[in-house]
Amino acid sequence: MSDNAAPAFDWAQVRADFPLLQREVNGRPLVYLDSANTAQKPRAVIDAVDDFYRRHNANVSRAVHALGSEATEAYEGARRALAGFLGVQAQDLVLCSGTTFALNLVAYSWALPRLRPGDAILLTRMEHHANIVPWQLVAQRTGATIRVAELLPDGSLDLAALYRAMTPEVKLLGLAHVSNVLGTVNPVAEICRHARERGITTVVDGSQAVPHMPVDVAALGCDFYAFTGHKLCGPTGTGGLWARREHWQAMPPFLGGGEMIEEVRFEGSRFAAPPHRFEAGTPNIAGQVGLGAAADYLGRVGMARIAAREHELLAHASEELARIDGLRVFGQAPGKAAIVSFVIDGTHAHDVATLLDLEGVAVRSGQHCAHPLLQSLGVGATCRASFAFYNTHAEIEALVAALRKAKALLA
Ligand code: PMP
What we know:
Low-confidence stretches: none
Bound molecules: 4'-deoxy-4'-aminopyridoxal-5'-phosphate
CATH architecture of the largest domain: 3-Layer(aba) Sandwich
Strand order of the largest sheet: 4-10-9-8-7-5-6
């Protein structure tokens, strides 16, 4: 290495920021490979929540006392931090409990008043239930129908079929940015451009994208972008929804109550401007403050660096898993994110995951809230190992050793 070469990034030091990763499970060092389910939290996030409750706790937007302004400033500061992280304006970012809430907000406030019998909602085969069921509920109430865009054998979207499905009846497209089962990264900007040309409103589920790669939401060209905080190293019950300003301005409130009004009279109420119009009631203040700290933390580590690190881990894992006879991976799309779903022929995913747990290795098993996808893959359940930047190459070796042991026991 020449004298002026940049020193290698110290991932061990980054890992040390996560206290929980030091613990043992079943007498073994924990190998946490379930970050697509929920990510572990760095000390910066835990401390921000702790500091909020120890020093600043008060309700937001109501009290004029010092703590009230500190709490409001911390909450709005978190909104600004998240907006910066996503490349959007803070006033277009509604904070909420996560993707499920965000997508229901679009369903009830945007879609329900607009859709009519004969309209269609286009979804992809790889959607999470959170991006399916709200649309079914809206379809039942409006007479709209659901249309599905299918996948190619490698787990990528069949783009030609998707574009063919964009007929004039389609008013809305619900699309995962990254699949939580296959790891497929969808070409969202290109898809949104096609949709926009046909007057189709796009709702992107960014839950599995924002933790893995730099995402410039404004540059994607979508109408709505939902994300969840707990997969982004933030607390549970946090997240947000970005929308184009013209949508926020045209949408009626989803929930009514305190915090979202200008004035209330029994004859009628005037609502606050967005984003507060869509944040009725006392929010998860400490949680969102923690999420703001997560955005700052991830920004310091660097999302491009995180993406490169995870691709390295994924390449290593894919190579090792390919050597295990009878192990089948679902999802081989080029450039996929670090999520690996697999089955071992002749075994059940829950049995494999249970045996891995005895070795301290945490993977998720089941249907991953994606029944329609699993149905099309023709399997009842899969194991899913999902990697984050804080995982190590040694942990991949531990996964592989535990899998070989499990396979020998179950075969
Ligand atoms: N969409 C995707 C792609 C997900 O992976 C998840 C979380 N499993 C969700 C939506 C739901 O997120 P939340 O439970 O935080 O609302």
